[in-house]
Amino acid sequence: MKSLESVKSPGCELIRVVEGIWYALPQGHQKGNPCTVISGYIHGNEQVGKAMLALKQQIEDGQFYPQEPLLLIHGNPQATAQNSRYCENDLNRCFGLVANPNTLEAKRAHQIKQVLIEYAPKIKQHIDLHNSILPAPQMLITPWKELPTEGEMLQQTLLFMNRLKIKTLVYGSGFYGQNGQYTDFDCYTHHQHGANSATLEWGQLGTNHTEKVIEGLKQTLLNSPKLLEASANEIEVWDAYQAIFKQEDSFQYAHSGYGNFEPLTEGEIIATQANDIWTANSGDHLLFPNPNVAVGQRAGIFMRRVGLQDIMQAAKVA
Ligand SMILES: [Zn+2]
Predict the structure, then answer these.
(1) With contact defined as beta carbons under 8 Å apart, do 242 and 301 qualify?
(2) CATH class of the region 5-234
(3) Which residues surround ligand 1, an ion (CB under 5 A)?
(4) Within the chain, which residue ranges are assigned CATH 3.40.630.10?
């Protein structure tokens, strides 16, 4: 792949690989070395993506450079130009099998995958920046189907949360497609490039405070010493264990007012479509309820709190 252009500042070269993708190569490193990936605007209108662009600008201006190679990705520039979530279909559902490979988003996902193969075959950490449609706490969502049994990945995750002062961690198989396959970008980098990946949900659309995100990302890229021990005690952990898939146009939620982290009552009917009914189990809460997704897509996720003991045990480095 022939890159478009490159800017050299003392200590770091910034290469514009294709439209909206930049590769920062600090002095003494080789292209293809283990790197960090930071992506934003996978959903074109989610303004926390500005943090990724700010980092790119600081590197270009010679104000900052990472200690190790860094790939910065503006996911969907066309959708950002229209201030919309996507143009033809949701880019964050295009990283597994796609029904139509000819949509703008399917082609962009393919292009991003090609760039990763060439520039970022080994990814240490991938942070994908998002805002939520409905109000939600700032949270980190990982593609772990279960809590990791080795401590390093969990410790790195807790440290990242500590740097951004995030108290909510969500994981679970509910973020996967109907057949258990991945569709989302962070799941893709986790499974295909060995990355410790996460989606950073930085509150609802329209929230504009990105300074803390930029600072937290910079500390991560500089491998800043741990100022505080990551404390699992303060963290709320949720297992998003089951997705609700919209299979027909008749899909609807029992109430239009369901929000994120909505507590549900055991036996309560949550959603219906032609021949299906979803009812809540004991302890269930709802995440990302959205009846307006395309048929075949995830319309929400059931999740439940996980005891801190589980995460404390998993966090122990073997
Ligand atoms: Zn998003």
Answers:
(1) yes
(2) alpha beta
(3) 43, 46, 130
(4) 5-234
Q: Where in the chain is the domain with CATH 2.40.50.630?
A: 246-303
In the numeric block, the tokens 């995460």 are attached to 311
Distance from residue 312's CA to the centre of ligand 1 (Å): 29
Kindly give, in sequence order, each residue whose CB lies less than 8 Å from that of residue 142, ignoring residues fewer than 6 positions away: 157, 169, 170, 171, 186, 197, 198, 199
DSSP state of 120: -
In this prediction, residue 318 carries a pLDDT of 43
> How many angstroms does the Cα of residue 76 sit away from the middle of ligand 1?
11
Q: What local confidence, expressed as pLDDT, does residue 26 receive?
A: 95
- What CATH number was assigned to the domain covering residues 246-303? 2.40.50.630
Q: How close is the Cα of 275 to the center of ligand 1, in Å?
A: 30
Residue 177's pLDDT is 86
